[in-house]
Write a structure and sequence with these properties.
The complex is a heterodimer. By secondary structure, chain A is α+β, with helices and mostly antiparallel strands. Chain A folds into two domains: about 1-110, Nucleic acid-binding proteins (OB fold (Dihydrolipoamide Acetyltransferase, E2P)), CATH 2.40.50; about 125-225, Beta Barrel (OB fold (Dihydrolipoamide Acetyltransferase, E2P)), CATH 2.40.50. Chain A has four helices and eleven strands; from the N terminus they run H-H-E-E-E-H-E-E-E-E-E-E-H-E-E. The radius of gyration of chain A is 19 Å and the shape is globular. By secondary structure, chain B is an alpha/beta fold. Chain B folds into three domains: about 1-25 and about 515-535, no CATH class; about 30-175 and about 350-395, 3-Layer(aba) Sandwich (D-Maltodextrin-Binding Protein, domain 2); about 180-345 and about 435-485, Periplasmic binding protein-like II (D-Maltodextrin-Binding Protein, domain 2, 3-Layer(aba) Sandwich). Chain B is built from 20 helices and 16 strands. Chain B has helices spanning about 1-25, 25-30, 60-75, 90-100, 110-120, 130-135, 155-160, 185-190, 200-210, 235-245, 260-275, 290-295, 360-370, 375-385, 395, 400-405, 415-430, 440-460, 470-480, 505-535, and strands spanning about 45-55, 80-85, 105-110, 165, 165-170, 170, 175, 180-185, 230, 280, 300-305, 330-335, 345, 350-355, 390, 435. Chain B has a five-stranded mixed beta sheet. A five-stranded mixed beta sheet of chain B has the order 10-9-11-8-12, with helices on both faces. In chain B, strands 4-5 form a two-stranded antiparallel sheet. The two termini of chain B are about 25 Å apart. Classes of the chains: A alpha+beta, B alpha/beta. Chains A and B meet through strand 4 of A and helix 3 of B.
Chain lengths: ~230, ~525
């Protein structure tokens, strides 16, 4: 009887993983979110964007239907980095860490999930969550903000070429966003779009909900609100 | 007929390509050694590039720009193009990429460790001794159009740091050291009194005590959920200084690696012990020391004196929200010591090197600009932006600089007390500073030194057992990763591209194209010879 039960449980477990399209030992987003800091994590997730490859490392923004991950300096060859196109499913093993409030996977390695499906996240409108404690629950997701007031634009070195720091406000509260040059460089549309904006413009913003001592969205698009 | 024409055209194109590639590769073959010309020809114009680093500090950027403007007014025939970086590592990588194509900048802010690697390109970096001594255009030279310091006015200790082998390959630009920024309020709240000189034992003991929590997981000291009692920004400096203080080996001038020792193991075990007690972390693992210090989440924060404007409750620069700032008394102290009677600390900060060019007059233009960076105007203005120290006695002893130092604490901007105390710390301790030997590969060794502390700290946090086996494996992994197992006995003049890491993609493409062109040319000639032979038969 015990043997039958064990077999049945194993079958149930296998079928559950199969239904979710996940390999055995892979955590769900809920498992990941609940995991202690500095523990090993194994996730399957979908590439949404990545920063420029450098020194056999690449920093990747990923998301699945349940949540998002920031994979900091994932070990990666230049050849593989070129294959990390949006939607690609990868399996990542690393350690959960936190840097200046940003929860991320550190010291990770990855493999492509052969025959895996694809997923590209729609931007989640989190405008009304600005200034609330709920916002952090969406950390790293691809998000949008509508009707923010641009208060200031500051180039990191005083001139184009490096990061751009944006100060935006909503409901009287100011926030720091960033056009991260390793994600969207000077040739990108967003980098050029910022140069056309003026303080006081009301803008719609999309980007990844990064954290640095508070919300610090890595902006991927910005335009005057219609 | 068309085919033969195409072949000839192809050959012509290959030859042209080869010539272009050869001229493009001139830098990789090496330049003729620079010789000081008899005179600087002011009738010719020169456009030079200056790659500079700032600490994400716009005042520093403005000072560079003003220095260029003032210099160009003195020398209208020289135009200086500024390229800004906020990271020494990026400058290093970009220079390496550009050496192979002889597109290096003219003047570059850098570290001697990096220069040792730049020197793998033949005559790529200009030795400065002959320029120093030139009566007309040298330091304090007769024909120099500004008040240039004479060699003796450069702080000897700082100038010595620019010697590689037996020659000067750089001028010091700014100097800093590390400081321990202490939350004195917390130290006293824990029942301790700060000693005159911080010791490692004291810091570890207080840090352990600061890690105590209540039943709900709040730290007793600050009532918060977060507390990193002791956080270190640059763990490579931490390891280097601890070894030096212990009199233990790190490397020698010949490039022999001495770091995998019992003393290193002892340091790593100590780090592991206190990490396990929740007393220690690093910048790479947690974040900037200033952010924790200013939020009342840290007791001892070790960072560069060049980061002093970020330290303390009233710091002029901060990355954390105002409502997170905590009021406390900040004390600036030298880093912890093993022997308080004989304190030892690292000397760091940017130097300036000059890259060789085919035209000696262009190098002279670079040299004049480099010298200009040592004038009092530039030195005092830049040093005052952070806890830097001017590198000339001429600037340090000027009335203007003494007035600046004397006004410590007068305001929380230019005269911010933590910043000026950090500068004063280095001026008081200059004779107790040291630098590590420079050789081709010393930059990798530095990275390896820090990596061992990072790995041990992460290992403990990840519940790994840090024991003899862990450290033995760590030594092997680090030696392999940083190629230290291939490193022994390489002086600065030794050319070894291995220390550069993998060649940049552009260089690989260039070299591959060059090889391909030569191979194609060889093949064409061979086919020609074979055909002739065949025809003879």
């Amino acid at each position: 009887m015990k043997k039958i039960l064990a077999i049945l449980l194993t079958l149930v477990a296998f079928s559950a993983f199969a239904v979710m399209g996940m390999a055995e030992g892979v955590m769900t987003y809920a498992d990941y979110a609940a995991a202690e800091m500095d523990t090993e994590v194994v996730i399957e997730t979908y590439v949404q964007a990545h920063q420029s490859w450098w020194d056999n490392k690449v920093t990747v923004y990923t998301q699945d239907q349940d949540g998002a991950y920031f994979l900091y300096e994932l070990a990666c060859s230049e050849e593989d980095a070129a294959k990390l196109v949006p939607g690609t499913k990868i399996k990542v093993t690393g350690y959960k860490g936190q840097w200046a409030g940003e929860v991320e996977v550190m010291d990770g390695t990855f493999e492509f999930v052969e025959g895996g499906d694809t997923f590209i996240a729609e931007a989640l409108d989190v405008t009304e969550l600005l200034g609330t404690e709920e916002l952090i629950n969406h950390q790293n997701k691809f998000v949008s903000f509508k009707g923010l007031t641009l208060e200031g634009v500051e180039y990191k070195n005083g001139e184009p070429g490096d990061d751009i720091y944006l100060t935006v406000s909503y409901n009287g509260q100011s926030y720091s966003f960033c056009v991260e040059v390793y994600l969207t460089g000077p040739d990108s549309d967003v980098y050029k779009a910022v140069a056309e904006l003026q303080a006081g413009d009301v803008v719609d913003v999309e980007g990844f909900l990064y954290w640095y001592e508070g919300v610090n969205t890595h902006v991927t698009s910005i335009a005057k609100a219609q | 007929m068309i085919t033969r024409r195409m072949k000839r055209l192809a050959l012509l194109l290959m030859l042209m390509g080869a010539m272009a590639l050869l001229s493009g590769c001139h830098g990789s073959k090496g330049l003729v050694a620079f010789e000081v010309p008899d005179t600087f020809d002011e009738s010719r114009t020169h456009e030079i590039t200056f790659w500079a680093k700032n600490d994400t500090n716009m005042t520093q950027v403005a000072i560079y720009e003003k220095a260029i403007e003032d210099f160009e007014a003195l020398y209208p025939n020289i135009s200086v193009n500024l390229r800004l970086y906020t990271d020494y590592g990026r400058i290093y990588n970009d220079v390496i990429t550009n050496i192979s194509t002889n597109t290096t900048p003219n003047v570059c802010i850098t570290y001697p460790d990096h220069i040792a690697t730049y020197m793998t390109g033949t005559n790529s970096v200009v030795p400065l001794d002959a320029l120093f001594d030139d009566e007309d255009y040298g330091l304090g030279g007769r024909m120099v159009k500004f008040d240039s310091p004479v060699q003796e006015e450069i702080v000897p200790k700082f100038l010595e740091e620019c010697v590689i082998g037996d020659r000067h390959y750089a001028l010091p630009y700014m100097r800093s050291t590390e400081a321990c920024y202490v939350n004195k309020t917390y130290v006293e709240a824990l029942g301790y009194e700060l000693p005159e000189v911080l010791t490692w034992d004291f810091v570890w003991e207080v840090a352990d005590a600061a890690a105590a929590k209540d039943e709900e997981g709040n730290y007793l000291l600050n009532g918060q959920k977060v507390m990193i009692p002791f956080i270190y920004k640059s763990t490579d400096n931490m390891m280097i200084q601890m070894l030096r203080q212990k009199g233990a080996g790190y490397s020698d001038a010949e490039g022999n690696i001495l770091i995998f020792s019992d003393e290193t193991k002892e340091i790593l075990e100590t780090v592991a012990l206190h990490t396990s007690r929740g007393a220690f972390s690093t910048f790479k693992i947690s974040s900037y020391p200033a952010n924790f210090l200013n939020a009342g989440q840290c007791v001892f924060a070790v960072d560069s004196t060049a980061g002093a404007t970020w330290m303390g409750s009233d710091a002029p620069l901060t990355d954390i929200a105002e409502d997170k700032l905590v009021e406390f008394e900040t004390v600036v102290m030298p880093i912890p010591q093993f022997d308080p009677e004989n304190p030892v600390m690292i000397s760091q900060g940017p130097s300036v090197c000059i890259f060789n060019k085919e035209d000696p007059q262009e190098v002279m233009a670079s040299w004049l600009f480099t010298q200009y960076l040592l004038t009092n105007d530039v030195q005092i203005a830049y040093a005052s932006t952070e806890g830097y120290v001017p590198v000339t006695a001429k600037a340090q002893e000027s009335a203007e600089y003494k007035d600046y130092i004397a006004r410590c604490g007068e305001d929380n901007e230019l005269h911010y007390d933590v910043k000026i105390k950090a500068s004063q710390l280095l001026m008081d301790q200059t004779e107790n500073t040291f630098v590590t030997p420079v050789f081709n590969g010393s930059a990798s060794l530095r990275d390896a030194a820090g990596q061992m502390i990072e790995e041990v700290t992460k290992g403990v946090r990840r519940k790994k057992t840090v024991d003899d086996a862990f450290i033995e494996k760590l030594y092997g992994d680090v030696a392999s990763l940083y190629r230290l197992d291939q490193q022994s006995g390489r002086s600065a003049s030794t050319v070894d591209s291995g220390a550069l890491g993998p060649l940049p993609a552009t260089s690989v493409i260039l070299l591959a194209a060059l090889c391909g062109t030569w191979a194609a040319m060889g093949l064409y000639l061979l086919i020609g010879v074979l055909r002739k032979k065949k025809a003879k038969r």
